[in-house]
Amino acid sequence: MSVVKINVLTVPAEMREELERRFANRAGMVESSDGFEWFELLRPAEGTDRYLVYTRWRSEDDFQNWQKGMAFQRGHAQAAADAGRAGGQGQGHGHGQGPAATDSEVWSFEVVQSAGPKS
Ligand code: HEM
């Protein structure tokens, strides 16, 4: 059964553009991780300041292995540096300006049912 892991980022309005720019320049290593199935960055259309970093994996173990592995570390080196520069305030997706997000939390789901377009 596939699992979905969503990193929920609270992004102040003035940091939205910067967050999206940083993802546009992301490492792109997750795509070659074992058991990786899908990634999407979801921008809130209305009513919330929370972006969703949606990932889907073949299994919980595949996600855990990615999160413990080099690809996660490489993909997050910049964020760690920015969080360090900003004195550890908040967590975020950042390059040089400090974290773009003021908060993050992970939501976990199991895919019980799924469907795609009829071919
Ligand atoms: C400690 C919390 C986290 C921080 C500070 C953080 C920060 C970042 C940063 C900075 C990037 C790359 C964009 C850039 O270089 O600016 C990134 C990419 C990414 N993050 Fe996070 N992240 C965190 C946790 C997570 C978690 C838990 C997930 C999964 C649910 C996740 C999913 C991703 C994915 C899929 C990418 C793209 C990686 C790639 O392109 O190889 N992040 N994150």
Provide an overview of this structure.
There is one protein chain. The chain has helices at residues 16-24, 60-68, 70-75, 77-85; strands spanning 3-10, 36-42, 50-57, 103-110. With 119 residues, it is α+β, with helices and mostly antiparallel strands. It has a single domain, classed as Alpha-Beta Plaits. A 4-stranded antiparallel sheet has the order 2-3-1-4. The longest helix is centred in the first third of the chain and has 9 residues, at 16-24. Residues 89-96 have low confidence and may be disordered. The structure holds protoporphyrin IX containing FE. Protoporphyrin IX containing FE is lined by residues 5, 7, 22-23, 26-30, 39, 53, 55, 71, 75-76, 78-79, 91-95, 104, 106.
